[in-house]
Amino acid sequence: MTSPVLFDELSTADGRKVGVATLNSPKTLNGLSLDMCKLLAAQLRRWEDDAQVAFVALRGAGDKAFCAGGDLHGMYRGMQENASGQAWDNTYAREFFDVEYRLDYHIHSYAKPVLCWGSGIVMGGGVGLMMGASHRVATTTTRFAMPEISIGLFPDVGGTWMLSRLPGGIGLFLALTGAQLGASDCRLLGLADYTLDAQGWDALAASIQAASWSDDRHSNDVALRALLLGQQRDAPAEPGPLQTHYSLIRQSCDGADLTGICAHIAAWAEHEDPWLKRAASTFLAGSPGSARLSFSLLRRVRLMSLADVFRQEYIVSLQCGAQGDLKEGIRALLIDKDRQPRWNPPSLDAASEEWVQRFYAAPWPADLAHPLADLGRPAAG
Predict the structure, then answer these.
(1) Which of 113, 225, 363, 377 is 20 to 30 Å from 88 by CA-CA measure?
(2) Are the beta carbons of 148 and 104 closer than 8 angstroms?
(3) Contact, 45 vs 80, CB < 8 A?
(4) Dihedral-angle region of residue 193 (phi above 0 means left; psi in -120 to 50 means alpha; beta otherwise)
């Protein structure tokens, strides 16, 4: 049986190695399963400890996606099997979010450079992997988005940390609409660092192998940046749709009036620009509860550390599986595929600020510590 993650080591000119992890589930657009997260986490630790490995690269098998998200079918089974309906009794969700969030945090704090080849679809869990990489490549086929509103979730995997730090209104717009960004807009927002041709991986790998690296992190960061700049497309990128509508989005989606912001987005359902029109359509079909939750979270985590954001997201993710719209959203999209979700609450008015507070309650027994309590903290002893 073929492994869902393939690991390879490229030999370089000076005898060092570069570790390459390839998500290997192209039929599911390399969606992240729990097993894939475990395999990645273990191998990244081994490469981090191997003095011969100069840096690590992440990519996806096939030409359609780096990673299109997480294991929604597994999530759905976990919710179905949770007889009590209590958030802490969903053992699959507890383990999945624990392993995935630790993996994402490790990439952010990795001791060596991490190159992410973010070609094709980069959504949800794929964004979580790409976001923490030190050298993030978008390509001519990149479609970057956080479309969780369509399944009754919120932009997790550190997504609230990322979106809350974008210019006012932009992050909320992306959370409420799941709008897709190409390479140009990713570069504009600082969500990617380089733009290469979608067919350029082999040439990049050859250049990596032909180069000499060192055991110094800073030197390798600098050398890898120079190599990637040398591989970039010569033609200047055309402005993306977000850049085109940047001022409009900021003006319409910033501030504390969620009702007004949602009204602005809804009005774009008749806009002449198909990108804005699609953004409005996604928002209008999405979960009102997710809209309120995303708005509340982006304001709540803005000044938190990354580790604290992951701890906050862990609580909210577990609660979404018990009292939110996640189960219904997955049912409508992937199980019954009727695309007729019955959202609860059914409207933004019903999804009030008071209503959303339930998602911030830690679901575990009072005598237990947060499962991610050690994240970002030195080990004892």
Answers:
(1) 377
(2) no
(3) no
(4) alpha
- CA torsion sign, 32 to 38 to 40 to 45? positive
| Model pLDDT for residues 19-31, shown as the tens digit of each residue | 999 999 999 999 9
The band of 381, judged by pLDDT with boundaries at 50, 70 and 90, is very low
Q: How many beta carbons lie within 10 A of that of residue 305, not counting itself?
A: 12
Supply the pTM of this predicted model: 0.96
> What class, spelled out in words, does domain 5-360 have in CATH?
alpha beta
Question: What are the C-alpha distances in Å from 40 to residues 64, 235, 302?
Answer: 20, 35, 29
Of 170, 160, 166, residue with least CA distance to 309: 160
Average pLDDT over residues 319-329: 95
Both tokens assigned to 348: 């933004």
The token duo for 88 is 């802490």
Q: Measured at the alpha carbon of residue 55, what is the angle toward residues 109 and 110, in degrees to the nearest 5?
A: 5
Contacts of 126 (CB under 8 A, 6+ apart): 30, 32, 60, 65, 66, 67, 68, 69, 118
